[in-house]
Specification:
The protein is an alpha/beta fold. It folds into two domains: about 160 residues, Luciferase-like domain (TIM Barrel, Alpha-Beta Barrel); about 100 residues, no CATH class. The protein has twelve helices and nine strands.
Length: about 325
């Protein structure tokens, strides 16, 4: 079982962005010591609570403070940017940290139309151009374009495309790159997506298929403890989906909100739980092993958005004890 962490750098209520960044470095170092194979960063903009807005910068910061854990992006918003510029940043990172760079890109606007225009410097919507931009990115990295992105490193970083279903999986497979399925966003197309990716894969930028999945996990001392912790993540996600404050609420605020949830909100929380694995070590292992078998996937990225950084770290420690520290 290969495990990594996907960090949205959620800012707890009452903490600063600077404190969140410092905690993130500490968490990545802890992840390396626990045996996690990779630490990836999301890209979010114009939110109060998700502070990972420049994954390339965070990759460099974490790689410079660790020695072996791989660092990656999950993912760079490729439709908004120049593929050549993205390729140059990836190549620069590879030159600094050879063999440790994993570049994940995705087809996302990054927010509403106003924000998309800001990211794209006012250019027309290029979401439909994602396949072409992805192809260009590959060519700038592998040297098959007229101009290769500099620096021209000896090795190449691994390249992944993020997606939520069969179409994105087939695209990644045909281009011969890795694929990452977002179970934590849309958990209902995983089986079909992984099957489509492996069927479509043609050796190209990467010689062998490389597929992984992302899921929210809160691993407590036992099921009851995990349930008490998960309320923070439940309310945080509910707020994010409503466009409200995306800072992680305190345990007290989460509990208070839980007690006053309307019927439709409770239905939404229950629906969102399908995107998560919540429980003590035995439950987490049972459920993650279930999806591992269903998807045929032994490579997972874990998200955990809790208010208390100590509890968050202990959740990752318990998961590591299940899968990474038994051999």
């Amino acid at each position: 079982m290969k495990l990594g962490i996907l960090d949205q750098m959620p800012q707890p209520k009452g903490r600063t962005a600077e404190e969140t960044a410092a905690h993130t470095i500490d968490m990545a170092q802890k992840a390396e010591s626990l045996g996690y194979e990779r630490y990836w960063f999301a890209e979010h903009h114009a939110t109060r609570g998700m502070t990972s807005s420049a994954p390339e910068v965070m990759m460099a910061a974490v790689a410079s403070r660790t020695s072996k854990i791989k660092v990656g992006s999950g993912g760079i918003l490729l439709p908004q940017y120049s593929p050549f510029k993205v390729a140059s940043q990836i190549a620069q990172l590879e030159s600094l940290f050879p063999g440790r760079i994993e570049a994940g890109v995705g087809r996302s606007p990054g927010g509403g139309e106003f924000l998309r225009k800001l990211l794209a410097d006012g250019k027309p919507n290029q979401m439909a151009d994602y396949p072409d931009k992805l192809k260009d990115l590959i060519h700038y990295l592998d040297g098959s374009a007229k101009v290769r992105a500099a620096p021209r490193t000896t090795g190449r970083p691994e390249l992944y495309s993020l997606g939520l279903g069969e179409n994105s999986a087939v695209l990644a497979g045909l281009f011969g790159i890795g694929y990452v399925f977002g179970h934590f966003i849309r958990p209902d197309r995983g089986v079909e997506a992984f099957r489509a990716y492996h069927y479509a894969f043609e050796s190209g930028f990467m010689e062998k298929p490389a597929a992984r999945a992302c899921v929210f996990v809160v691993c407590g001392e036992d099921d009851a403890h995990a349930e008490s912790l998960a309320k923070e993540q439940d309310i945080w996600l509910l707020n994010v989906e409503k466009g409200l404050d995306s800072q992680v609420p305190t345990p007290e605020a989460a509990q208070k909100k839980y007690e006053t949830l309307a019927a439709k909100e409770r239905e939404k929380v229950a629906e969102n739980r399908r995107r998560m694995i919540i429980g003590g070590p035995d439950t987490v292992k049972k459920e993650l092993d279930y999806y591992r078998k269903q998807y045929g996937c032994d490579d997972w990225l874990i998200l955990c958005n809790l208010h208390d950084w100590g509890e968050k770290k202990r959740s990752f420690e318990r998961i590591a004890a299940i899968y990474l520290q038994q051999s």
